[in-house]
Design brief:
With 165 residues, this protein is of the alpha/beta class. Helices cover 39% and strands 21% of the residues. It is built from six helices and nine strands. The protein starts with a strand and ends in a 6-residue tail after the last helix. Mean pLDDT is 86; it is low at 161-165.
């Protein structure tokens, strides 16, 4: 920035050069349409209001039915009320009253075909990464974008439910 009294200021902004062709936004929109849901029911367990609101909105506006809750206890209650008619459990790994892996174990004991997608912004031991890998549960790191969320949900629904030992 340079500035002189009575003459204003000049700002120089340097943007990094990007190697490669420009991104085709039409192709991105077309690929998002392939990720559109068909009324699949998702039990969304996320304790952060903003993340839960974004994910619920994103999924609803893209063809999914969403049952959003903030913790393990409400997830168990909702699953019971809905009589297990849930196609996918999308859960945060770290919950205020337990963990996503605990919730997966509880729910898959009641409905072995339940598909799972776990998500976390934690990179430390709280994330229970080794257990997630051992069980083969799909994982979506936070923060995530709309295309990342939709792709992970579509992949988790298509993959089926891994065995829970």
């Amino acid at each position: 920035m340079s500035s002189e009294p009575g003459h204003g200021a000049t700002f120089r902004i340097y943007l990094p050069a990007v190697a490669g062709p420009p991104v085709d936004t039409a192709a991105q929109i077309a690929s998002l349409s392939e990720l559109y849901g068909h009324g699949e029911r998702i039990l969304l367990v996320e304790d952060e209001d903003g993340v839960r609101d974004f994910a619920a909105w994103a999924l609803r506006t893209n063809g999914y039915e969403v049952l959003p809750v903030a913790d393990l206890v409400h997830a168990l209650g909702t699953f019971t009320i809905e009589k297990g008619t849930v196609d996918l459990l999308l859960s945060d790994v770290v919950l205020p009253d337990g963990t996503g892996p605990q919730l997966v174990s509880y729910l898959q004991a009641r409905h072995s075909g339940l598909r799972v997608l776990l998500s976390s912004g934690h990179a430390d031991r709280k994330s229970q990464w080794s257990l997630i890998q051992e069980r083969g549960w799909p994982y979506l790191p936070k923060p995530y974008s709309l295309p990342d969320l939709l792709r992970a949900v579509r992949d988790a629904l298509a993959a089926g439910a891994p065995a829970d030992d």
